[in-house]
Amino acid sequence: MRRKCRCPYCGLALAPLLLLLAACSFLPRSGGYFEDDGPSAPIADAARIPDAVPKHESRSRYGNNPYTVNGARYHPVADARGYRERGVASWYGKKFHGRRTSNGETYDMYAMTAAHTTLPLPSYVRVRNLKNGRSVVVRVNDRGPFLHSRLIDLSYAAAAKLGIADEGTGLVEVETVAPGEPLTAKTDTVEIIAPAAAAEANGGPRLYLQVGAFTRWDNAIALRDRLEREAFRPIFVQSTLVETETRVYRVRIGPVASVEEGDRLTERLAQQGVANAVFVVE
C-alpha cells in the first residue's frame, strides 16, 4: 500500500494539487545512511541484479522545472550529454519505498534507479565506485540528495551492487549514458583507491572539502587564514583558470580521510559561518 503523502499541499483542491505535485515529492532526505533503512535481509547476490537499460524517453511532466529546497534554488538541465562528475554517493531505502518520486512514479528500492538534483528526469547514468571498481547503470527518476553535499542518491539495489550499502556512502564517478552506448564500463579507466585512508592513496582519487571559491586572491587567503587559526588543517588555495579565462581561487581542506570525517568538518565549519562546504573528489 502506498504511504500517505505528508506534504502540506495535499489538503488542497485537485487543480492546485496537480500544479504543486513536484513540491510534494521534494521531501528533504539527508543523503546519508540509516541503519534501519534497508530490507530485513540483504540481497543475496547483488552482482546479478541487471542494470537499467537506457532507452529514448520523453522528459517527465513533473520534476524538470526549477525548484527550491531548504532555501537553495535548483535548475534542472534540459540536456545532460557529456555530463561527468565525481563526488559522494548515498542511498535511500524503505523509508521512501512506495512513495511518489519527483517525476510522479513510485519509488522501488529494489529497482536500479537514482535521484539527482539537476539531471533531466528521466535520464540514465553510469555510476562507478572509485574504491572497488564496480559500476552500475541507473535510471534517474527522482530529485535529491539535498543535504551533506552528496552528489547522487542511489536506490538500495544500486548501492548493494556497487558495494556501498553497508557503509552508507561511497566515492563515485557519475556520467550520462545514451541509448545504444556500451553498458559495460572500461575497467582500465577506473581509478581504484587503496583500502588505506584517502590521504595515503598514491595517485588515486582524494577527497577534499571546498569551503569557498573567489575571483580575488586576497579574499581566498583571508578565508584560508581565518579557518587555519581555527585548526582546520591542512587547508590550501588552488588557483584554476576556468573556461571564461577567469582565474578562480578555491579554498580547500584535505585530503580528508573519509566521508564521515568530512561530515564532522562540515558541522564545525557551519559553526564558523561557512555553510556551503562541498565535497570534491580528485
TrEMBL record:
Molecular function per GO: lytic endotransglycosylase activity; peptidoglycan binding
Signal sequence, start to end: 1-22
Enzyme kind, highest EC tier: lyase
Any one Gene Ontology BP term: peptidoglycan metabolic process
Subcellular location: Cell membrane
EC number: 4.2.2.-
PROSITE patterns: PROKAR_LIPOPROTEIN, SPOR
Membrane topology recorded in Swiss-Prot or TrEMBL: Lipid-anchor
Annotated Pfam families: DPBB_1, SPOR
PANTHER family: ENDOLYTIC PEPTIDOGLYCAN TRANSGLYCOSYLASE RLPA
Function text: Lytic transglycosylase with a strong preference for naked glycan strands that lack stem peptides.
Family: Belongs to the RlpA family.
Descriptive protein name: Endolytic peptidoglycan transglycosylase RlpA
Name of the gene encoding the protein in the UniProt record: rlpA
